[in-house]
Amino acid sequence: MCTSRCTSRCTSGAKGSRRWQKIPQRDDEDSPHAFTVSYVQRARRAAWRLRDVTFLCADAALCGRWVRTLTEQLSALAQRPRRLLVYINPLSGKRHGERIYRHKVAPLFSRANISTSVIVTQHANHARDHLRTEAELQNYDGVVCVGGDGMFSEVMHGLVLRTQRDQGRDHHHPDQDLAQTGLRIGIIPAGSTDCICFATVGANDPVTSSLHIIVGDCQPMDVCSVHHGDAFLRYSVSLLGYGFYGDVLSDSERRRWMGPARYDVSGVKKFLSHRYYEGTVSYLPASDVLGTPRDRAPCRTGCVVCQYNRPLEEEKEGKLKMEESHEGLAWRSVRGKFLAINAVSMSCACPRSPQGLSPAAHLADGTTDLILVRNSSRLAFLRHLLRHTSKDDQFDLGFVEVHRVRRFRFTPRFCQSDSELDLQELLQEKEQKEKEVAGSQARRILGQLCREHPACCRTPPCASCWNCDGEILPHADIQVRYTTLLLLFLPLLLLLAPLLLLLLAHST
Ligand SMILES: CCCCCCCCCCCCC/C=C/[C@@H](O)[C@H](CO)NC(=O)CCCCCCCCCCCCCCC
Ligand SMILES: Nc1ncnc2c1ncn2[C@@H]1O[C@H](COP(=O)(O)OP(=O)(O)OP(=O)(O)O)[C@@H](O)[C@H]1O
Ligand SMILES: [Ca+2]
């Protein structure tokens, strides 16, 4: 199809140097035969743009041969999607999802001869349930979600749960290895945080994401499974956050009408309330892996660290069994008061934090970076937060520690049975406080102690909740393990030959 009226012609310059020059479109009937090729041009900051170039041919036969050859070459690229299932969340972010798709994405898909089935979701979990039950997955080469991280999470859950059911695996069993999903997922960013898109593509731009899908390859991604005892809770690919990020999320839920700004309002509010939470974190460090959370080597698609660290399918059994066989030895425990416990399977880079919560976390290395922020002063915590908006090392603070782990579990203090906890210690703490302060202040402090331990005064415990990719988990006591790999529409090697980045060739 003719995509540009102004045609460029390759002419040999004075010194034989070949250069393009724009020549005005000749309207007379003997205008030569021409065909237009659309291609991807990399712009600044990981953005991709569509460009056209038109070639003039002396005669129709030559023109036809060029178009046929190019079209054959392009259709031979097997990894390119031909048919996509698209879910649009009309309420994501600033509620521009549908407009973004219709104006920016659909025209590109049609130019690349991609057929689409579009579903605008009518309620929460519509996409997840449709994927899990009704969708005829064999008719598609991939699924696209237009929305934010929550929409991606829905599509991911739908695909992963459907795959487990189809392959007869029980996802409730915490040690059950999951089957890989066959279909790739493409993300068109239209949400409030969009950290999954930003951390994988490097930009939150619908056109760039569309072009990645069109030239698509597949980029694997870590997925963590979260269980409470033997009950499956959710999968996570970005942030599992307890304490600060959990409180920010639960407080922001009632402010959805504010759109993305809801997180900043709740963020300031929860920063000022400065709550800490007691509990025990146990984790299984990832042994014999390349890289550390502080090596400042960011993960890019095609990352060699990921390829080295990720247990291959057949190896996975052995490797994890080996680590678990030394379970007693390898597991470590940390007990204390935490402002935030964050487990990130990827950097979680997003517009709010360009480097992300853990800048050197890898997309598909089979590990999760566990960040423990212990109780500290507001000023110290603010310094830690501020470093997320610059290139300073947010782990280089005394009250912050980070570990690269394959599994971890968390038990909030109020969950431990009385026998485990030294009640004596608690009562002594109370008597000590009673001696130190008198009157109303004592009541306030004792109130805080009591609230934190039902065994003391049988009052409902105060705890935070887990923020799992932007959704609230129903339990605070969880076990988390690295599990399967997802596949995203991302070209593995961004430096592929230009031909692969061509979109299509059409005679004009
Ligand atoms: C003073 C500036 C400090 C800036 C601190 C920036 C840290 C931002 C870190 C962003 C981490 C995003 C992790 C992504 C999680 C997603 O799976 C999830 C679903 O989309 N998004 C959220 O949970 C949404 C989480 C959004 C959290 C926003 C937190 C905003 C904190 C503001 C604190 C202000 C303190 C000011 C004191 C006067
Ligand atoms: N049609 C719908 N009506 C109501 N809720 C929906 C609908 N479709 C999806 N949802 C739910 O809306 C929630 C938010 O969607 P999404 O995450 O895409 O936007 P966001 O929260 O603004 O972005 P982010 O997660 O990046 O911050 C998701 O949990 C999703 O399950
Ligand atoms: Ca990872």
UniProtKB/TrEMBL annotation:
<dbReference type="InterPro" id="IPR017438">
    <property type="entry name" value="ATP-NAD_kinase_N"/>
</dbReference>
<dbReference type="InterPro" id="IPR016064">
    <property type="entry name" value="NAD/diacylglycerol_kinase_sf"/>
</dbReference>
<dbReference type="Pfam" id="PF00781">
    <property type="entry name" value="DAGK_cat"/>
</dbReference>
<dbReference type="GO" id="GO:0016020">
    <property type="term" value="C:membrane"/>
</dbReference>
<dbReference type="InterPro" id="IPR057465">
    <property type="entry name" value="CERK_PH"/>
</dbReference>
<feature type="coiled-coil region">
    <location>
        <begin position="416"/>
        <end position="443"/>
    </location>
</feature>
<dbReference type="InterPro" id="IPR050187">
    <property type="entry name" value="Lipid_Phosphate_FormReg"/>
</dbReference>
<keyword id="KW-1133">Transmembrane helix</keyword>
<protein>
    <submittedName>
        <fullName>Ceramide kinase</fullName>
    </submittedName>
</protein>
<dbReference type="Pfam" id="PF19280">
    <property type="entry name" value="CERK_C"/>
</dbReference>
<keyword id="KW-0175">Coiled coil</keyword>
<keyword id="KW-0812">Transmembrane</keyword>
<dbReference type="GO" id="GO:0001729">
    <property type="term" value="F:ceramide kinase activity"/>
</dbReference>
<feature type="domain" description="DAGKc">
    <location>
        <begin position="79"/>
        <end position="230"/>
    </location>
</feature>
<keyword id="KW-0472">Membrane</keyword>
<feature type="transmembrane region" description="Helical">
    <location>
        <begin position="482"/>
        <end position="505"/>
    </location>
</feature>
<dbReference type="InterPro" id="IPR045363">
    <property type="entry name" value="CERK_C"/>
</dbReference>
<dbReference type="Pfam" id="PF25382">
    <property type="entry name" value="PH_CERK"/>
</dbReference>
<dbReference type="InterPro" id="IPR001206">
    <property type="entry name" value="Diacylglycerol_kinase_cat_dom"/>
</dbReference>
<dbReference type="GO" id="GO:0006672">
    <property type="term" value="P:ceramide metabolic process"/>
</dbReference>
